[in-house]
Amino acid sequence: MTSFTSSAQFLSDLGAEVTGKLVAAAADVALIVDAQGVIRDMAFGSESLKNLGYERWIGQPWVQTVAKDSHKKIEALLRDGESSESPRWRQVNHESESGPSLPLSYCAVKVGAAGERGTSHSVVYGRDLRAIVALQQSLVDAQQASLNEHWRLRDAQSRFRHIFHVSSEAILLIDAASQKVQEANPAALGLFEPVVRKLVSSSFPVGFDASSQEALQGMISELRSTGKADDLCVRLLNGQGQLTVSGSLLRKEAGSMLVLRLAKVATQGKATQAKVVPFSVLPTLMQASPDCIVVTDIDGNIITVNDAFVELLQVSSDKEVTGEALGRWLGRTGIEMNVLISTLRQRGSVRLFPTTLRSEQGSSSDVEISATMVTEGAQPYLCFTLRDVSRRLTGDARATKEIPRSVGQLSELVGRVPMKDIVGETTDLIEQLCIEAALDLTRDNRAAAAEMLGLSRQSLYVKLRRYGLSDPIAESEK
């Protein structure tokens, strides 16, 4: 630190008030510290520090206002103030009750005038380092973000390299301006190995016959201008086979790159490979299916149907049923649709569920339903396949069980057995058959069967035990 050369000439007549203003203006915060290290007075040159209420430091030991890791620095500052050498700046952190700590840079200068007790004091200059600390933190955050981005790009590049090299599809990366082959994966090198020794860095097209090269050149020109082009079927030199070429344009900051995908065309002499049906043809196949296909949401509201369902329902178009509940036309009672949806939610699929379908004209058809539930994203969908089995079933074959007593057998009982007993036996038989049919329709779901029959669950359980249709109950359950 250098001093004024003529301080006695220009500063000797300064009073205490002017000196205090000079000290306060020279720093963001200025402290007067006695020989025992107690803060006796302070002044602020920064309004932001003045409004934080640090006047409470007056009367406290200076070392108690700072963080524990800064105690030794305060002791060193007090020692520096007593030395005749240039004062040294030290960074100190003050603890804060309302937010982050306050970083300040201090230097202390001992003042020669003695106080009433004959002890000297020091003037401490403090600089606010919050802006510098914030700038340093921003720099550290930027460096960390840059490092994370660097590793993310490296991971992406590693994944691209791995996929590029292990892909069974031949891929060429070509510079759009120079048409030089920049990169080729092992599958592409294997295709061109018989006709091209060095594929990378060669001008494309290379290794094709004359007509194929002309077609490929046109394809490259179209990719440059529009970014897309139709697939080509080209031939390699020396009869090495045919290739199907697909292309796309990849734009970069420094230019553009062509991405060509090549696939070998199977010859007629080779064994015929199984053809893969594309997903785009599935809606057409479903629409042409002779069985009725209905897709609904989880509540049974129709989303789409095929033509067979429209025909069986005897409506003019699928627009008349879209958005409607499937249960409007399905089932002998209103419970079948609820049983189907409940079973699909529990098991995921239903097979050969027998019920009826009522058309808009009032006719009824016996149908068998197979259904499944599929979740796409967070939305579940139900797909129902309905098959009309009316022609398969005859009037006699629809009953799963025969009534053991015919009309003739019942008439023979007249005169021998009271009519009340004959009617009671017949009623019990019909009641038993109804319960068995309901259990078959609901897949042994007794709650749904009770609702279908119009009974309470307790009444159904009583009748099941009465006709011997339930498992024997334990004594504790009684």
Q: Can you give a write-up of this model?
A:
By secondary structure, this protein is α+β, with helices and mostly antiparallel strands. The chain has 4 domains: 7-128, 2-Layer Sandwich (Beta-Lactamase); 167-264, Beta-Lactamase (2-Layer Sandwich); 280-388, Beta-Lactamase (2-Layer Sandwich), CATH 3.30.450.20; 407-466, Arc Repressor Mutant, subunit A. The chain has 14 helices and 15 strands. It has helices spanning 7-11, 16-25, 47-50, 71-82, 130-166, 186-192, 210-226, 282-287, 307-313, 336-347, 407-412, 419-441, 446-453, 457-466, and strands at residues 29-34, 39-44, 90-94, 102-111, 121-128, 170-175, 181-184, 232-235, 242-252, 255-264, 292-297, 302-305, 349-358, 364-376, 379-388. The strands form 3 sheets. It has a 5-stranded antiparallel sheet. Helix 12 crosses helix 13 and helix 13 (446-453) packs across helix 14 (457-466). The longest helix is centred in the first third of the chain and has 37 residues, at 130-166. Residues 269-274, 395-405 and 474-478 have low confidence and may be disordered.
